[in-house]
Design goal:
The protein is an alpha/beta fold. The protein has five helices and 15 strands.
Length: 259
């Protein structure tokens, strides 16, 4: 596991993607060797300084990493007082982060493998950096992204820069119509699936993978308070007993989970 850091970051850019989602590019104000150790699937805990109703840090997946320029990109869903307060900040403001946290996705696969990266909603966030890392290892990642409509698809052009993109929308406004777990690409040969999104979606993917003997890793989004395994708020039952998602996850192989 990577060494944890507590650092101040300056907001270089804050981009409103929709009324629900904000993209933030943060630059570390300190010399930090941790950038080169970040694994796709890890997250940060952000201190919320400008909200009278928020006392706990907020966990946010790392969307992208620029080692040379010491920047992190975060995709944030405005879900409550904490994330709304974070998203209200502007370029030049400071955020205090504990980072990088958790265990990320594994990349011990051969270049000939066919890999699908599945995401729904804000669950697409960790898949961007994962796709970049897989390409560095010589793989050709394919993305399968699901949303309610075409307006809800996030960072589509960024994903297209990395690999092939398959799309599923509930209303059929783009890609195939219906649930992402029923997309036709899932009926073809696949060696491994990485997945992050709503729990019903991930459980559906896990069932499909078990039925077809496909290796699969999922990134859980259990409620987290401390991010360091102290509060036991995010515990997930596994075949090895209860595990803290914030320290022993958020990424798990589906064979470890009691789904």
């Amino acid at each position: 596991m990577s060494q944890k850091n507590i650092s101040n970051f300056i907001i270089k850019e804050s981009i409103s993607l929709t009324d629900k989602y904000q993209l933030m590019i943060l630059e570390c104000t300190e010399e930090a060797k941790a950038f080169q150790d970040i694994k796709p699937g890890q997250f940060v805990q952000i201190r919320v300084d400008n909200s009278h109703h928020t006392f706990l840090r907020r966990p946010i997946s790392i969307n992208d990493v620029d080692i040379e320029n010491r920047t992190l990109t975060l995709l944030i869903r405005k879900a409550g007082d904490g994330t709304k307060a974070i998203c209200s900040l502007s370029q030049g403001d400071t955020l205090n982060l504990i980072w990088p946290l958790g265990n990320g996705f594994s990349v011990d696969i051969t270049p000939a493998s066919r890999i699908i990266l599945m995401g729904g909603g804000v669950g697409v966030a960790p898949l961007l950096y994962l796709g970049k890392i897989l390409r560095m290892y010589g793989l050709k990642p394919e993305f399968l992204l699901g949303a309610q409509s075409s307006d809800d698809l996030l960072l589509l052009e960024k994903f297209k820069e990395i690999g092939t993109v398959h799309i599923s929308t509930d209303d059929g406004s783009l890609g195939e119509k219906g649930l992402v777990t029923r997309h036709s690409v899932l009926s073809t040969h696949i060696d491994k699936i990485y997945c992050c999104g709503p729990l019903p979606m991930m459980k559906g993917v896990a069932a499909l993978c078990k039925s077809n003997n496909i290796d699969c890793e999922v990134s859980l989004e259990n409620v987290m308070a401390c991010g360091v395994g102290a509060c036991l708020c995010c515990v997930e039952p596994t075949v090895k007993g209860n595990r803290c998602v914030c320290t022993e996850g958020p990424v798990f192989n589906i064979n470890e989970l009691l789904w």
